[in-house]
Specification:
Number of strands: 5
Distance between the termini: 96 Å
Structural class: mainly alpha
Largest sheet: 3 strands, antiparallel
Radius of gyration: 36 Å
Strand order of the largest sheet: 4-3-5
Number of helices: 15
Shape: elongated
Length: 335
């Protein structure tokens, strides 16, 4: 199939052998950035070495025209490139350009772009590790449930631990509370810990129990483990070992080897060693004396005719009644 000069230019640019893709056509110049983005999405044949560069070219012009979604998508393409089985399908990795377009999108309030930049600056795999930039970006992320949760929890952790910034329980509390208000299980669990341990706030086991309960309802491993501990120790709730072990089991099954997993696993082991539970990873059963079923035992004989108590004698002399003959019968009791 014939390929145009534009296709060849796009391919050279996508493979890093040209500064610019083919210029926009007259029709494309009349398009809005949104229309350019939509048209780029129509080029879906990734196995075509010409089709994919055409897609990226349209994405590039949409991004350069200020479309925030195009900027984010183009940054993704620059970050990961596209190669399969060693054969380039038409785009080379370019980390500086990926950072550039993520930043442009983040400056327009694109939450996912902010989160991606934060991950890059924290991880240090693609760019130099830079916590100062990560913290600044975290505080700029739109405060909404979709994009704000990760940043709230990160900031809370950094201020709580003091490893990245100066330790500040007040700041940590505020960020954890924001994450908790978004309904995030991690934020609820961390905030509950501050109430349980009296960090920045006075110890309040009832509030800690409430927050751990919310976190556990989100199936969060921290909430499950910490709520189990509250039940085990009777903090903010009546002590309930069966409920505690059940929550510990649910946390352990998540098997993520986090601090919460370690807590749940160690508490199950300790309870098992103390003889308070049996088979902790399979059943939730307390090692208490088993209640015996009532047993039926013989008590005495009675005469049905006269109603006399006969004791151990099965015969009634008064009525001349014999057991099983003239209505004398045994009476039983349960012990």
């Amino acid at each position: 199939m014939f390929r145009s000069i534009s296709d060849e230019q796009n391919k050279k640019w996508a493979n890093g052998n040209a500064e610019m893709p083919a210029k926009m056509t007259a029709a494309e110049r009349r398009m809005t950035p949104e229309q350019l983005l939509n048209k780029s999405m129509e080029e879906n044949d990734y196995w075509d070495m010409y089709c994919y560069p055409r897609k990226i070219r349209l994405l590039y012009y949409a991004a350069e025209s200020g479309n925030v979604t195009a900027q984010f998508l183009l940054a993704d393409e620059y970050l990961y490139g596209r190669e399969t089985a060693g054969y380039s399908l038409g785009f080379q990795k370019n980390i500086p350009k990926a950072e550039y377009y993520y930043t442009k999108a983040a400056e327009q309030g694109h939450g996912d772009a902010c989160n991606k930049l934060i991950e890059l600056y924290i991880g240090g795999e693609y760019v130099n590790q830079n916590y100062a930039k990560a913290i600044d970006l975290c505080k700029k992320v739109p405060t909404n449930k979709v994009n704000g949760i990760m940043c709230c929890v990160l900031l809370g952790n950094w201020y709580f631990s003091g490893k990245v910034v100066k330790q500040d329980y007040k700041e940590a509390f505020q960020w954890y509370k924001m994450a908790s208000d978004f309904g995030d299980g991690d934020g609820q669990a961390y905030l509950g810990c501050m109430y349980k341990n009296g960090q920045y706030v006075k110890i309040n086991y009832n509030e800690a129990f409430r927050l751990f309960t919310l976190s556990a309802k989100n199936d969060n491993i921290k909430g499950l483990a910490f709520l189990g501990y509250m039940y085990e120790q009777g903090l903010g709730v009546k002590k309930d070992l069966i409920r505690a072990v059940d929550l510990y089991k649910k946390a352990v099954k998540k098997n993520d080897y986090s601090e919460a997993y370690t807590l749940a696993n160690s508490r199950l082991s300790e309870l098992h060693k103390a003889g308070l539970i049996s088979d902790p990873f399979e059943t939730v059963r307390l090692n208490e004396p088993q209640k015996k079923e009532p047993q039926k035992v013989f008590s005495h004989y009675v005469c049905i005719t006269c109603g006399d108590y006969l004791g151990n004698n099965p015969n009634c002399i008064k009525c001349n009644c014999l057991l099983g003959v003239n209505l004398t019968k045994p009476v039983y009791k349960y012990i």
